[in-house]
Amino acid sequence: MSGHVKSYAAVDLGASSGRVMVGRVGPDSLELTEAHRFVNRPVRLPEGLRWDILSLYGGVLDGLKAAGQVDSVGIDSWAVDYGLLDGDGRLLGNPVHYRDSRTEGVAEKVWATVPAPELYAATGLQYAPFNTLYQLAADRLTGAERLLLIPDLLTYWLTGEQGTELTNASTTQLIDPRTRGWSYDIAQRLGIDLELFAPLRQPGDPAGLLRPEVLEETGLAGPVPVTAVGSHDTASAVAAVPASGEWFAYICTGTWSLAGLELDAPVLTEESRAANFTNELGLDGTVRYLRNIMGLWLLQECVRAWGDPDLGELLREAAEAPALRSVVDASDPVFLPPGRMPERIADACRASGQPVPVSRGEITRCILDSLALAHRRAVEDAQRLADHPVDVVHVVGGGTRNALLCQLTADACGLPVVAGPTEAAALGNVLVQARAHGLVGDLAGGRELLTRTQPLTRYEPQGDPGRWSEAQARLVRI
């Protein structure tokens, strides 16, 4: 098999766009090309915010057709959201978007039955209002016989087979991160029927073959297997962190920033809960110990409000704006809903007694400084809470294209930043498929292949670290 190269289709669905990438993998090669990219545009209906799941599935089929003949298909997406099926396997309505308002006030009702500290000690998941657990508590589930998380739903439509992939299941707040199985006690106390979920799958498990109708529509010659990957896109992205050894932090950047460590065991202390760290499951028995940060959503919403100006020009203006003049808490839930983002950032600066950014460049600089500061807090807190020091920060995902953000993150953390790969989730998706078919060894072997084949950029910390401490002090909540 020494010279053998295989092709894998990685379906990678983000919160604002989907893509089908083709990875060609050999013993010493890993090439990724884009077959198809399509928009992911949620729709606001009278009943609330919904995913246009049929459009997404159409994009997947178009992407597989554009990809051409492949040896396997894998799907990853954002976490927590799901589709409900009736007893005949038919979808009951469009999946609800995690930014929908239906979970407002639901967490407090859940905590009345299972107090937040108990919930964390059992599941290790940070509080977020849109966790699947809270969505289920808000959902009437009328007529539902099956719940499939988004990647599992699309896999079901491609193959006719149902499963629940573990890394994504770990974001439901119904998995015990110690046993890596369902938390039956929590589900029972909250009246959640775990029979709703299809059997658990591990990354690398077979997930069925493309149905004859799918083969016909895509022009592919069967049989084409679908392989379960780290179907939570962050799990796939962390699998593609080109690190050697264990003393590293990672930041998966995009609409969200997921900043943390890869550990062998969860951290379930009350101090960890108070710091809002989550314990999600990764490949090979690992735990993704991380904090959710609002991420480039802040900038994306500003760009949308400004009528989509040139991003390169915005970043040039931001680089010339005064550093650390004003910062906001990038994890503040006030920034979660869409709309009026420039005004909300200005309001937050005004409320904290800082200069109010006015120009687009000033607002962009405020966002990037604030994100770097949030990255710094997450990396420092994770090291302390897990007693796990690091000597390098790996930045992967879309934010690697933003050189200013990468440099500011290095400056804020006081550590070198290695940026790349950009398409980390798709590469991690491909690596799990390649490994399932014997082309790649363990997690370390896949990372070593990435390091040899993918372009990486290193940023050394610059400037006075004390300025970041001073900026942080402005954000300490009273």
Structure report:
It contains 18 helices and 21 strands. By secondary structure, the chain is α+β, with helices and mostly antiparallel strands. A seven-stranded mixed β-sheet has the order 17-18-16-15-19-20-21, with helices on both faces. A four-stranded mixed β-sheet has the order 3-2-1-6. The protein has a two-stranded antiparallel sheet with strand order 4-5. Helix 14 (360-386) packs across helix 15. The termini are far apart. The mean pLDDT is 96.
- Output the structural class: alpha+beta
Task: Give the termini separation.
Answer: 62 Å
In one word, what is the shape? globular
- Helix amount: 25-40%
Q: State which percent range the strand residues make up.
A: 15-25%
The count of strands amounts to 21
User: Which residues sit in consecutive blocks of at least 5 with pLDDT less than 50?
Assistant: none
How confident overall, as mean pLDDT? 96
The radius of gyration computed from the alpha-carbon positions, rounded to a whole number of angstroms, is 22 Å
Number of helices: 18
Strands of the biggest beta sheet: in what spatial order?
17-18-16-15-19-20-21
Q: Which sheet architecture does the biggest sheet show?
A: 7 strands, mixed
